[in-house]
Every structure is written in structure tokens, then in C-alpha cells.
């Protein structure tokens, strides 16, 4: 395969942003854009300057110019489009969270195995160079025995009971939209927790508006994870070990700075491209597809299932 043709399912902000990134990554291009409204798909095609417009997701999946489908619909629409693409044998990159229910995530992972088709969650954080560097530090022993993680992500979102962030039928709530990052980071650095505790508050629609999760591990390591749709949180992540600490910022889900302290010395590593994680995940899909692989070593579907398992337990404790 000399060039990877992407079909973009969805026409919102993230679909447009990632569509533009696809256009600047060598060896790939947007071949099609799909929406339930043809006019909206045509608008995005015109904005990107490439591809065919389709008035349905079925049209994107069936387009012969499409090798891989990027799913950027609201959370509640992921299952439908991912299933269409997998059954059609098209590689899939689906925005986080892969679904908004644990059983749905498990079902998509099983379908990908059954069809032998590539599936990966669009968790751009995992492909950010500084997050990859922190992962190497954490698992390479430079920080010593890992003892704690503190991370948060939050912003005040105008309350709209019919909006994506607040409507339970659309997969609303702070945990699914923001906590997916903090939980995934905790699992990436510390593994699967042995205990999940949660406290927080619910919106009138029943979704979680804000929460703090306390995760613990058999080693005694712990993580405090904050997520909020009511207040702007610092957004940094601080990992502490017995030999030093490392901090991601200004936003740990898309960091531009990594500060590391070991033995009294503080050093910094920086990147300039906020979209580096998008580039990394797109390149990972292209590498795997070119190699005939059905999963990524960086983020296989089993990892998405494990993160959703923690989120499901936390949501259960909050009653959301």
C-alpha cells in the first residue's frame, strides 16, 4: 500500500481537526467524509480540500478509496460505525472512549478478533512523545519504585441537558469525556489497580459532573484522579517514585513539557506540536496496516477494555 486512504465518519470539531492532520502526514490522505447529512459532509470535504462526501456512514465504509475509517461521531454512535467498518474489512481508528459501555467495548474487541480487522482507540495521549518518554522512565527504574500519581482534567462546560457532555444517551459525563485520559494514564504507568474508590456529584441528567477517583495497587502505590465539567483544573500529572518525580504539563493529555527530578537535578524536555499525538496514532495505524497487523502493540483493544472496566466501576460507585 503506497498511500492510506482515510474515511472520516463525523463532521464535528475533532473530525475536522484530525482530518486536517491526516492531510499533512506523508503517505495518507482523506478519501471520504461521511455524515447523516450530506450537506455537512460536503462542507467538511470543501474545508479539507479533498475526498468524496457521503450522506451516510455506510457510504464512507463502502467507498473503495477508503482503506481505514476514523470514527469521530458522538460516543453513543461509535458502536454502529465501528461495526460497519470491521464487517467491511476496513481498519478502524475510533475516538476515545471506544464506546460508553464496558460490554460494548468488549463486543467490539471480540468482533475485531473474529473478523481479523485492525481496531484501535484514538487515545492520542498514548502517542505523544513526552508521554512515551514518561512511560519509559516509569518502567526503566529511573524514578525508583513508583509510589503515587496525581492527575486531573477539567473545564467549565455550559450546562445543556441535550448536549453531548450532559446527555446520558450520548455518553455524557466527566468520566467518559475526561476521566478516560486520567484513568488510562494511571494504567499506562502503574498497571491495573486492585481497588477503585470514587466520590463526586451528578448533574440533573444523571451523568457525573465531577469526580475524584482513588486507585490503589498491591504495591501500595496510589493515584488520585480528578475530572470536572464544572471547574477548570490544572491539567498536569505528577508521578512520584522513591528516587524522584516527573511532571507532564500544561495539559497531561497533550503535554508540551516534561519535567524530571532525580537526585536533586531537574531537567526539562519540550515539544512544540500539540497535535503530535494525532500524528503518532495515525502513523501507528498506517504501520500496522502496512504490516498486515490487526492490533497495535502500543494500544491494543484489550487496553481499551481494561480502561473502560475501571471507568465502569467508578461510574457504578457514583451512580452515573
Question: Can you characterise this structure?
Answer:
The chain has 320 residues and is an alpha/beta fold. It has 2 domains: 122 residues, 3-Layer(aba) Sandwich (Rossmann fold), CATH 3.40.50.720; 163 residues, 2-Layer Sandwich (Dihydrodipicolinate Reductase, domain 2), CATH 3.30.360.10. 35% of the residues lie in helices and 27% in strands. The strands form 2 sheets. It has an 8-stranded mixed β-sheet with strand order 8-9-10-7-11-12-13-14, with helices on one face. Helix 4 packs parallel to helix 5 and helix 5 packs antiparallel against helix 9. It is globular, with a radius of gyration of 19 Å.
Topology:
Layout: E1 4-9, H1 13-22, E2 28-34, H2 38-48, E3 52-54, H3 57-62, E4 68-71, H4 78-87, E5 91-95, H5 102-115, E6 119-122, H6 129-140, E7 146-154, H7 174-190, E8 195-202, E9 208-216, E10 222-228, E11 237-241, E12 244-249, E13 257-262, E14 265-270, H8 276-290, H9 301-318
Parallel strand pairs: 1-2, 1-4, 2-3, 4-5, 5-6, 7-10
Antiparallel strand pairs: 7-11, 8-9, 9-10, 11-12, 12-13, 13-14
